[in-house]
Each structure stands twice: as C-alpha cells, then as structure tokens.
C-alpha cells in the first residue's frame, strides 16, 4: 500500500515521519515542485474547454429534473387565500370576513 501526503507545513511533516519511523514504515520523500511558469495556461484552458464526461451524471438528467420541477400543478387557491387572510389579520391591517375571500 502506498500513502501520499502533501503539506506545506514542514513541522507536521516531520512529526508524521517520526511517527512512521516508530511504526517501522518506510518513508520516501519526493520533491515535485511546479512553478507557475511551467504550466502552459493555453493548453490547460483547452483541456478544460474540451472536457466531456464519459458517463451520465449520478444525479440524472438535469433537463428532465428541471422539466419535472417546473411542470404545471393544480394550485389550491382556497388555502392560499385563507393564508393571505390570516396574514392580513395578524398584521392588524384589515379584519375581513369569509365572504371577501370566496
């Protein structure tokens, strides 16, 4: 088994190496440093723009999800009006009888 640890904190890396040595684990340090000048930004941009997924998302088809979310539904107008009536009465603006909301 191989374990790769990456950290900028030199002290924590030293503590991990000391613990690994106590546990008789082989520690190999690889210094791989990449500077900003080494990165070909145009090639990286093209790689990102040309990315194509190899399989369908685990969340399913986003277009179908949106279609289901936006489908027409029957609205219960009576409960909406009842809630509006309660809100207006709670705010103390108006006292309404039931006939006004039928």
Automatic annotation (TrEMBL):
Q: Which domain of life is it from?
A: Bacteria
Instruction: Please report the name of this protein according to its UniProt entry.
Output: Uncharacterized protein
Q: Which organism is it from?
A: Mucilaginibacter celer
């Amino acid at each position: 088994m191989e374990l790769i640890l990456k950290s900028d904190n030199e002290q924590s890396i030293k503590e991990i190496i000391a613990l690994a040595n106590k546990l008789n684990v082989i520690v190999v340090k690889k210094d791989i440093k990449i500077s900003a000048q080494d990165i070909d930004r145009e090639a990286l941009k093209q790689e990102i723009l040309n990315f194509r997924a190899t399989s369908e998302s685990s969340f399913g088809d986003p277009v179908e999800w949106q279609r289901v979310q936006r489908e027409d539904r029957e609205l219960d107008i009576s409960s909406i009006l009842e809630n509006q009536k309660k809100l207006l009465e709670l705010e103390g603006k108006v006292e309404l009888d039931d006939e006004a909301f039928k």
